Amino acid sequence: MRACDLPGLGPVPSHPDVQSYDDLARYVARAVAAPTVLVGQSMGGYVALKLALARPELARRLEPDLPRALAAFFRGVVPSPLRAERCSRTAARSSSPGT
């Protein structure tokens, strides 16, 4: 397990090259050497999600602890495999003859 303090928070000084969430995701990516379970709470969960979307080869699994509003937003943006499977089955049934 490895903890990654974000620049400008806690004991880590701010970095002039980190100005956005995308920059934070790139910052964290430098600390990840192999596919790993990405865990983050609140803003860290959002950064973990951004990293998983930008560099899926680094994310073995994603375990974000996001605030409810942010989690609800991403439920619509990041489809779950189960939801995608359900949608494709529903579409196949509705396009079948006799339905």
Write a brief caption for the model.
With 99 residues, the chain is α+β, with helices and mostly antiparallel strands. Helix content is 45%, strand content 13%.
Order of strands in the sheet with the most strands? 1-2
Question: What percentage of residues falls in helices of 4 or more residues?
Answer: 40-55%
Beta-strand content bin: 5-15%
Order of helices and strands: HEHEHH
- Global Rg: 18 Å
> What structural class results from the helix and strand content?
alpha+beta
- Total count of domains: 1
Descriptive account of the structure:
The protein has 99 residues and is an alpha+beta fold. It starts with 20 loop residues before the first helix and ends in a 5-residue tail after the last helix. The protein has one domain. Helices cover 45% and strands 13% of the residues. The model is unreliable at 81-91 (pLDDT under 50). It has a two-stranded parallel sheet with strand order 1-2. It contains four helices and two strands. Helix 1 (21-29) packs across helix 2.
